[in-house]
Amino acid sequence: MKYVLVSGGVISGVGKNVSSIKVDPYLNVDAGTMNPKEHGEVFVLSDGGEVDLDLGNYERYLNITLTRDNNITTGKIYQHVIERERRGDYLGKTVQVVPHITDAIQTWIEKVARIPVDDSGEEPDVCIIELGGTVGDIESMPFVEAMTELRRKAGRGNFLQIHVSYVPVIHGEQKTKPTQQAIKAARSAGLLPDLIACRCERVLEQAAIEKIARFCFVDVSHVVVVKDMPSIYQVPLLLEQQGLVPLLRDILSLQNLTISPASVQKGRHTWSQWKSLTSSENRFFDTVSIVLVGKYIELHDSYLSVIKALEHSAMRCRRKLDIQWVDAEHLENVSDPANYHKAWHAVCTASGILVPGGFGQRGTEGMIAAAKWARENKVPYLGICLGMQIAVIEYARNVIGITGATSEEFNGEAADKIIMFMPEVDKETMGATMRLGLRPTLFQPGSEWSRLRALYEGKEEILERHRHRYEVNPAYIDRIEQGGLAFIGKDDRHERMEVVEIKDHPWFVGVQFHPEYLSRVLDPSRPYLGFIAASAGLLDELTADYMKGNGPASEAEALVNGVNGLTVNKETGLF
């Protein structure tokens, strides 16, 4: 097994999101109970693991499927070691950070690194590990020690460290001293960076590159510049242009690995698709404006996967994405006229309205008002998890006439709890007790008219990831459907409502699952894709393509052959 360790210095979170294993030095066992306004979204994996949002980036970029064990936290490691100590596995020895914690970290990584990440079932050749936080943090030290030992065990040609640092510009001058100090701290801790990735706002001057190479003891060619790009999807192209691929091949002796011709061809084809799609992104001139009505808009990372799914869909529809962020509470608060009118102006002028997931009562009346506007004014609407429940409540109140309709989450004493707590869920324990992970949804007989189902190419069953505690109350389902809101998708036991849609509307869809978790650059999530296409006036055209079997693969192939009159160089994949 070959390892690539990605560590950070100067500041955390500067773009080293390239790993298939993420180390988070916090004591939480998982990310499930973390506040999204502080930590960003909780990403859910197919096995139900609630993990750091970076694992979503890994899956999207690498097109792989990870497990909960790919996210290592201090809490997980200590819990594992303490459980072993209680069982007597250490034979009465004094349990210490070194060697017991550090050995447990290495064993965990070595085991997880060999888990297949795609349908081939093959063991990976390379495992990329991101060491979260900043080198020098006290919380990270056991992991740093474990990585130095892992490097020694792996041996020459099997371990590569990339250290990511930020190069600030002060009074117009690029300052390399913070990077020098960060590398010095890393080396003193036992980490020996082979490559230095410099995050910067603009291209580094040659003098700055040479200074970093000289004082950080690496070759000039081993200083990689990761400057700001028009789109994050163009960063891989930037790295390729700087010769990162041959550097990795030489340091890790990748030329000695045996790779099947089919895998090589598949990789080349996928890379050609990626370059064709992402390099055309800055050529989109028409804009699609989407208003996101949420609870946690102060930190956009709270909705990171939602944003990515919208971006993927907008690229597929060849549109520039304009997201208007609206705090749901501002749609309620008439006593704050400035924010109230600004929020409603955004809602009323948007091409589409999106209500994502969330927890608690705060802002829900504003969300209900936004859903009502979308339904009555034929504006494309997409409700995700809470957003679907909001759509059901709104419809029950304003169409069916159940004026007191609400959710048990909002008012446990209400008479008409249209949305109820799932009976099998533990109400007392918060962590990992929701309905989580990849689960089937069955489209119901008679739903052939569904615009969403058409984008799933008419399939009867789909698999999507879930994360929720509440569901539509079965006691109200018949009454709601008779009123015109169709539950076109249900779970495999036909008990839980998964998808709602209004027939006589350009696009009014709510889904209980979180389709954003499975969205990919070359294969956008269908609910988001339909929503964006409807908002851009392209839904009929897009649906016709999908019903003909011209889905993501054929679209990417079309990009290689030329799009919108543009000529594509088939050798480089560039327009």
From TrEMBL:
InterPro entries: Class_I_gatase-like (IPR029062), CTP_synthase (IPR004468), CTP_synthase_N (IPR017456), GATASE (IPR017926), GATase1_CTP_Synthase (IPR033828), P-loop_NTPase (IPR027417)
Catalytic activity: UTP + L-glutamine + ATP + H2O = CTP + L-glutamate + ADP + phosphate + 2 H(+)
Pathway assigned to this chain's UniProt record: Pyrimidine metabolism; CTP biosynthesis via de novo pathway; CTP from UDP: step 2/2
Pfam family, one: GATase
Signal peptide as annotated in the record: none
Positions of the Glutamine amidotransferase domain: 299-530
Keyword Transcription set for record: no
Source organism of the structure: Sporormia fimetaria CBS 119925
GO cellular component: a single term: cytoophidium
Domain CTP synthase N-terminal: 2-253
Keywords carried by this UniProt record: ATP-binding, Glutamine amidotransferase, Ligase, Nucleotide-binding, Pyrimidine biosynthesis
GO molecular function: ATP binding; CTP synthase activity; identical protein binding
Gene Ontology BP terms: 'de novo' CTP biosynthetic process; pyrimidine nucleobase biosynthetic process
Record family assignment: Belongs to the CTP synthase family.
EC number: 6.3.4.2
Function as written in the Swiss-Prot or TrEMBL entry: Catalyzes the ATP-dependent amination of UTP to CTP with either L-glutamine or ammonia as the source of nitrogen.
This protein's name: CTP synthase
Major enzyme class: ligase
